[in-house]
Amino acid sequence: MLAPRALILRAPGTNCDRETTHAFERAGGIARRVHVRALAERPAAADDCQILCIPGGFSYGDDIASGRILALELRTRLGDVLRRFRDRGGLVLGICNGFQVLLQTGLLLEDTDGGRQATMAHNTCGRFVDRWVRLEGRGGPCVFLQGLDALELPVAHAEGRFVVRSAAERSALEAAGQLPLRYAAGTNPNGSEADVAGACDPTGRVFGLMPHPERFVVATQHPAWHGRLDPDQPGTGLAMFVNAVRAMS
Questions:
Q1: Fewer CB within 10 A of the terminal residue: the chain, N end or C end?
Q2: Domain-by-domain residue ranges, the chain?
């Protein structure tokens, strides 16, 4: 039986696609990078894959707002393809800029009237943040976080503040287990409501997060690995990719 195939969708300005491809391959999957325009010309390419990932970076220079132009392109040219991929049970992962895109396309946290339940705003500090943070997994349905309750990953963003449309909707999302990844106490880098670092759909198969798991798949990627981590052991970010590959095997 062939290993699960992951499609890594790239666009002008994307800069984490190679690392994400490597992470899925290291997890045992078969990954390939596909340009958004190539997928628009041949949308059937998505039918051969079980996992779709929108990686991090600065798609289209993040002009207007982070991820806005790529999200618009996906909605207008590939909206039906992406919804069909999701609805047939494929896994969808959005990392950093990819998380911003998932929210703006409506693939994640869209209400029954087509409105967005949440968005990403500028960091409360007013500047780009690039550092490591501690995270807590809260359980629930998220496929990517199974077995993960504590991990450390890097963040690198200027618009990473997770904001929900209303307090009532945030409570409903929490109750449904759709806010499964939080910044540990005292490490919230952007002012996100309820320390939210990642969100998923009700099935747990569509997941977006601001931290970068693809940047910590081997221990030596951690800046303080020497004397603290076993260099022969994987970084904790790899577990998310292993979970995805295992779920589709």
A1: N
A2: 5-247
In Å, what is the CA distance from 209 to each residue of 53, 94, 249? Answer: 12, 6, 23
Sign for the pseudo-dihedral over CA of 140, 68, 32, 34: positive
Mean pLDDT along residues 29-52: 96
- Is the full-model pTM beyond 0.90? yes
User: Which of 106 and 2 is assigned the larger pLDDT?
Assistant: 106
| pLDDT recorded at residue 226 | 85
Place of tokens 């062939």: 2
Nearest to 209, CA basis, from 169, 164, 248, 162: 162
Backbone torsion region of residue 169, taken as left when φ is above 0, otherwise alpha when ψ lies between -120 and 50, otherwise beta: alpha
| Residues annotated catalytic, as ranges | 96, 212, 214
Hey, what are 14's tokens?
Answer: 């994307």
Asked if residue 161 lies in contact with residue 122, where contact means CB atoms within 8 angstroms, the answer is: yes
Q: How far apart are CA 209 and CA 180, in angstroms?
A: 10
- Count of CB atoms within 10 A of residue 202's CB? 12
